[in-house]
Task: structure prediction
Amino acid sequence: MSVKDALRGQRIETPSWAYANSGTRFKVFAQQGVPRTPYEKIDDAAVVHRLTGIAPTVALHIPWDRVDDYGKLASYARDRGVALGAVNSNVFQDDDYKLGSVCHPDPLVRRKAVGHLLECVDIMDRTGSRDLKLWFADGLNYPGQDDIRARQDRLAEALRETCARLGPDQRMLLEYKLFEPAFYVTDVPDWGTAYAHCLTLGDQAQVVIDTGHHAPGTNIEFIVSFLLRAGKLGAFDFNSRFYADDDLMAGAADPFQLFRIMHEIVLADALEPAAGITFMLDQCHNLEPKIPAVIRSVLNVQEATAKALLVDHGALDEAQRAGDVLGANAVLMDAYNTDVRPLLRELREDMGLDPDPVAAYRRSGYAEQIVRERVGGEAAGWGA
Ligand code: AOS
Ligand code: ZN
Result:
């Protein structure tokens, strides 16, 4: 397949919460024109897809995107040229979850948490979503606070019950995170823990790599490569970090890392949707305007992918076999150092798109329109 064809087929999922108000632990700076309903989030996601051509799905978050009629939401999305993507559960914003959700020592709280996960699968049945994405804030702040091993048993049981509820074409994606909000123990802290649980659960359980969820210096492409080899990589949550879970725009902090990740994807032939990897963004735009920030992020992933597709695999293989360390490294760096912007402008023109989606957004007047029209009601946010 040609580089252009591969890029034309690329799919990136945007998160509904990236269009809504968000902030840090210290302050949410509200922006004007922010969606007030899940429908308006879909309007914004549709604009991103119209301009980039490669972002046709939007991930939902329950309860932030709760509506009365999910079938109606799905057809609203369809009418705007997009589809509903992964359903993200939320068992971290209820007072009952102070000491955990599915790992909580009280069976009644665990039941409530699992009930929510099962409800998310009911919603997926109505939205036509394939993926249930699970992230747990469960953990401990102090040694002795709870029994670490018992919590793993409770987690395993909750995952087993949720997985058993999935339809044959649905999947459960388990996300890990090194720390935060818990600081002493996190119940799913790393890819190894997520992988071990998914292995026991079978084919429908897969690991999600959120690029912001590792210790500084972690070699994420190694994890990508390992999980691909094991057939256990289900999805990415792309974003950028300088320190921890910063949730900045993908490709902003370390475009080279994004390239190295996409290189592993290309090597494994896992870019095409048929390979079953969902490439999602998981970001919050606290300072910058949200829609152009999502567009920029999609383009950053696309740029990294284009460079990865340019790697000369024949030359790389030859250098590796010959033990030519410098030569092999040079093959990779040649691709990374290629300016792919002309190629991408050309690709967009081929696809009937504006070659510069950010500029096209600015010219479109959409930013002014939503400020004018989205008056009254309550701006959507993450409910923290
Ligand atoms: C939290 O740190 C995670 O990255 C999750 O992916 C979370 O589910 C997402 O931010 C939506 O709440
Ligand atoms: Zn995430």
